[in-house]
């Protein structure tokens, strides 16, 4: 793509960014115009109103969404988030990312995303439960273990999806644990699911460092460093780390521009932009969050020869472990934590090898290579199934 057609951060929506990445990768493949046109649009987008009675007796109505992007390889799969930024557009972009992520991992799922426009911090536990149960009822016709399988995301957790599963099951007249993944283990969740996204990022970061000849055989020790056991405890107690007693504090913006070997943006999207990409001093970027790098920043990093390992590969541990949980429901068999870790390592290394081969054979970036792998698999599935009249 020419420099003139590169997106500008200020003007580009999440969907436009997702489409830009799709178009760029499609240029390396022999995909028909019709196939590309299908991939540009979600299959279904649902908007619902979710009323709840607040603790003070008043009634509030919240907007909820579920976007299902593409199911040619299997049922839809994707997170369910509670956040003020949730919108149909955001869910559409993230559903597209889930389609590519599942395909690059060779999982039998299509992409979906959804959530409710709400700040969960403003909800009591009872209100959050009521909101979740009503949301499950509103979505009951479009979700299910062979249709669309939600999972925890920003602002939701294992308890949230357990409520969702219970509400769905009550309406179905039978317990249906497979309608969601990421549940507590006592109601059918899999061990190792919670740490899977972080483990996959670590595995891929390790492989990327090795590939680019970084020394990962040792470490650095500083006796005045942070107490790593108390930092998470402080965050859990206060909900933030600003109260932790540290000799120096830096902003999020400064953090992204530190002189480091590896930068792992692992919180929210669009934090690496055209504005700060020129000041990033990392040798390698491994995306732990969904969509942390804008298309304009991507171009800067490519010009500066800074490898960027994309989210659809690096943080795919979450959906991969969800796949393991889904399999366990189908087979009525539980896996040990060790088995989940071993299977996750194997799946991540297989995906890494596939993407690495595309990088080497086509001379493209890691992101484009990951998209090429994903689109090739989706294209093969589309060709095999054909187009229903």
TrEMBL record:
MF term (GO), any: glutamate dehydrogenase (NAD+) activity
Give the multimer and partner information. Homohexamer.
> What region holds the Glutamate/phenylalanine/leucine/valine/L-tryptophan dehydrogenase C-terminal domain?
190-386
Q: Name one GO biological process term.
A: L-glutamate catabolic process
Alphabetically sorted, this entry's keywords are: Oxidoreductase
Give the Pfam families listed for this entry.
ELFV_dehydrog, ELFV_dehydrog_N
Could you name the active-site residues?
A: 113
- PROSITE patterns, sorted: GLFV_DEHYDROGENASE
Can you say what this protein is called? Glutamate dehydrogenase
> In chain numbering, where does the site feature Important for catalysis fall?
153
Name the family the entry cites: Belongs to the Glu/Leu/Phe/Val dehydrogenases family.
UniProt superkingdom = Archaea
């Amino acid at each position: 793509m020419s420099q003139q057609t590169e997106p500008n951060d200020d003007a580009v929506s999440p969907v436009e960014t997702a489409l830009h990445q799709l178009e760029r990768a499609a240029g390396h493949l022999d995909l028909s115009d019709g196939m590309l046109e299908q991939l540009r649009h979600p299959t279904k987008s649902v908007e619902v109103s979710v009323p709840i009675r607040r603790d003070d007796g008043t009634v509030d109505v919240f907007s909820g969404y579920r976007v299902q992007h593409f199911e040619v390889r299997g049922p839809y799969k994707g997170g369910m988030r509670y956040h003020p930024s949730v919108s149909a557009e955001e869910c559409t972009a993230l559903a597209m990312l889930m389609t590519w992520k599942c395909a690059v991992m060779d999982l039998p799922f299509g992409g979906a995303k959804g959530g409710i426009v709400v700040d969960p911090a403003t909800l009591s536990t009872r209100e959050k439960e009521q909101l979740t149960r009503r949301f499950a009822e509103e979505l009951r016709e479009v979700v299910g273990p062979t249709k669309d399988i939600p999972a925890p995301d920003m602002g939701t957790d294992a308890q949230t999806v357990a409520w969702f599963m219970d509400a769905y099951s009550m309406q179905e007249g039978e317990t249906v644990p497979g309608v969601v993944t990421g549940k507590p283990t006592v109601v059918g969740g899999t061990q190792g699911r919670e740490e899977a996204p972080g483990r996959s990022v670590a595995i891929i970061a390790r492989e990327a460092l090795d590939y680019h000849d970084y020394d990962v055989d040792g470490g650095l020790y500083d006796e005045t460093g942070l107490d790593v056991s108390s930092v998470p405890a402080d965050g859990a107690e206060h909900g933030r780390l600003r109260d932790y007693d540290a000799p120096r504090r830096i902003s999020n913006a400064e953090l992204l521009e530190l002189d480091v070997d590896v930068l792992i943006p692992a919180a929210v999207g669009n934090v690496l932009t055209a504005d700060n990409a020129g000041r990033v001093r990392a040798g390698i970027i491994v995306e732990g969050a969904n969509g942390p790098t804008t298309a304009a920043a991507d171009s800067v990093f490519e010009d500066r020869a800074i490898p960027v390992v994309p989210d659809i590969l690096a943080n795919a541990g979450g959906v991969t472990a969800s796949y393991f949980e889904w399999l366990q429901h189908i087979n009525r068999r539980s896996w040990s934590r060790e088995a989940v870790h071993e299977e996750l390592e194997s799946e991540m290394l297989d995906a890494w090898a596939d993407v690495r081969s595309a990088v080497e054979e086509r001379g493209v970036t890691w992101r484009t290579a990951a998209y090429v792998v994903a689109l090739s698999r989706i294209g093969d599935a589309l060709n095999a199934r054909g187009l229903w009249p």
